[in-house]
Each structure stands twice: as C-alpha cells, then as structure tokens.
Amino acid sequence: MASVEWIGQNVPTVLLTPEVKRDMEILCKAAGTNEIGWLGLVKRDTEKNAFKVYKILPLPKQEVHAATTEMTPQGLAELMGELLASGELTIEQANDIRFWGHKRRDAA
Question: Which domains does the chain have, with CATH numbers?
C-alpha cells in the first residue's frame, strides 16, 4: 500500500471565516441549479501550516458550462479594476487571491 509523507509538522488546513462561509452559501443559493465560481483572498500561517480564506470575490462575468465555469479575462479585469478603484481591494490584498471556489450544477 502506498503512503503519503507530509513535509512539515502537520497536515495543511484550510480555514473559512464565518463571513466567507455565509458569502459562499449566498452565492450557491443564488445560483440555484446552475454552476457558479468565485475567488477568495487567503492568508497563510506557515507555523500552523494553515490557509485562512478571509474574503470572497464574486465573479460578475464567467462562462458557465454543463460541468465547468471559466473566468473570462474581461470579467476578471473589470472586477479587479472596479475593486481597486473603489478601494474595496488593495494591491496587497490582490496578491492574496489564491482561492477558487466552485459549485457544481444541481449541487445542494
């Protein structure tokens, strides 16, 4: 039987803030039976080997297919431009975009 050897002290952990969990549930409910994807901002705690998702960025423009969603370059550029111009997102936070969330079609 094959085994996996972890490098470091413990298994990587992904944490979601209560606001992130709420926002993901809202996006999934709003999508109904359709596919939907979103981005998230992540901070890493190297000592605990943990990744904390601290903010969700809904994608206003995405291509939705039967089994996938794809960010359009135009949609991503518009989102980043709007968030940076409004001050809702800083350049430092833009570097924290390291999470891609996705709900499958008809998933509950």
Answer: 13-103 (3.40.140.10)
